[in-house]
Amino acid sequence: MNILSMVSHKPFQRIHPLSLLAQLISRQSSGCLQVVSGSNSWLIYLNQGKLTFATSSIDPFERLDRHLQRLSEHTPALISAVRSQARLLHENLADGHPASSGDFQAIRWLVEQQYLDLPQATCVIEEIAKEVIVPLLSVTEGMYEVTDAQKLTDYPNLCQLDLRSIVEQSHNQAQRQKIASRSPEPSPEPVQTDLRPEPVSPVYQAAPERPEFAPAAQSIAAGLRSTPMEPVARTRYTVACIDDSPTICRQSAPF
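Given the sequence above, the corresponding structure tokens read:
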């Protein structure tokens, strides 16, 4: 039986994973929270409200190998061949039981074979849990089931982590990702505007002096400067008035 068949009798419904995890922590639950949404599923293992392991169906062994590879920089024993062997031995374990976690079994095998010590395994489990819970918190519709620990086989027991702290960190990370996805695209760089005045169109430019007309123009200008201006003679007129009216005489006086 797989996870989907265990919960397929329940219809898809609105779920709030953050509230579900908060309830399990406050009740100090022990067991496994199984969440299914679309083609993805999550397993959250708890012991008295503490996290013992978290995984999902989204490339679990690629995720495990990525974290082991980072750790191999400080742990030479975690060579590629060892990581590949751990995967081959445990990759198909999840097909046998809904509560079995092949990636956890691989971690436990690495500890038993002394490729990892317990603090290193705890560090890997914690980093995997943070990566797993971030997308879980964004689920809004699906199915979930809480299985009691007594019904589980191969229950994860290497460590107990503070689930509340991990959920808070994952929630903050999810919020940052949501804000980043809504951020507007950076505006294009402003085009530099050339504020220098544009040159005058050739239609309105003063016509250049033509060399062949320059001597004649200079001669005419010199003649105008040397010839004195004669005064204009003022013409006088005599007005004869045949009316002896004083008014008419006064009006005619200026003439």
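Residues 193 and 199 are 16 Å apart (CA to CA). Try to locate this feature in the token string yourself.
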